[in-house]
Design a protein that fits this description.
The protein contains 14 helices and two strands. With 398 residues, it is an all-alpha fold. A hairpin with a 6-residue loop joins strand 1 and strand 2. It is globular. The N terminus is likely disordered.
Amino acid sequence: MTMSSTQTYPTFWVETALDNSTGVEVYTKAGGSKSSGIFGLLWTSLYTACIIVANCLNLAAFCVNKKLRTYNNYFIINLSILDLLSGFRLIISVIHTHIGYYPLNQDLCKIVTGISRSLLSASNFVVVIICADRHRATYDPINHFTSRSKRKALFLNSLAWLVAFTFWMMFITAWEFIDNFDNGHHCLNKYYAIPEVSLLGVVVTFYLPFFLISILYFRIFLKIRKTRGAKFVEKKFDVKKNLSKVVTDFPKDATTSSQNNSTIDMDVDSVGANQYGQDVARRSTKKAGTNVDKKPDGTRESAAEMRKATRTLLFIVLSFVVAWLPQSIIGLIYSINPVLIVQGLPRPVMLFFPWLASGNSLLNPISYAVSQPLIRSTLKDLLFINWKNRSSLKNVKV
């Protein structure tokens, strides 16, 4: 098939390349289309089931344990809902991959595809919002803490849904209905026929969120590193100050004064070289009430809450990059020269990377359990149906 000079590719050009690609495939009776075979059906079904079950368990944990319903975790709940819905929409993809053609009619194809892309983008936008919220908590902790509320969390979460659905329902569904686009038997979208336009979809889905997340998280990292360094210096200074104060309060006779002073000065400089000096510093610091790990007085996040939120964000960001980067690179190459992708990649490879991107919906719930001990404990109770010991969750460190 010869491609036109306008760089607009008919749907059947891509579909023919898909049907003729090499890979583990078997023919079906549906117009010579190809299916993935029983192995493809099993692993895609299991993959989809894992996504649905993992996110259902996380939502169940938030339902049964009120201690998990914090301001920061409202964003996690929103992500779990989005990932759960993304898991359900994969059921259609499982059927499509197995039978070799899209199981719904073209009108439903336009609507379902718009909703699917909206869910994926909304999930990525929520990650951006979490980064922005954590950035403010790091650089403006007092105002951030005093402005936190359930209403604010709901507004920010709703904003991600609104932006994503507005863009994709217009970009896919409305555009294809107005143009009466032929989606073919693989439910291909119109913007795939115009590679330059397809780049816009890739940018909105991955590159724009990735750019914002990278800047925000890098600034968060720098601030945390700077703060930890400052706390270390301050703690060391306080120990020296306390030791010096103790030295001036010690009674000493004229014959041993010089020797004792020089010995204690060496202890002050080494900060812990002498066990006696450490004990004195510990007692003096405790008496003065200068414990650096002391919880704040309610004007900002506690140190434990901040560490937990930052750790959770790190895992979410890593999951986002690992899942979406390969497919986004393929999308970028396709917008430059579609032949490199459509005719250059075998069908199994073209199927693998979109499924990997969907794996973000599986990595997210795993990230929550890894980063938050209370979620792990709640999930353990749910999995073992340990209803009698649910009261033990009150003793779990958040």
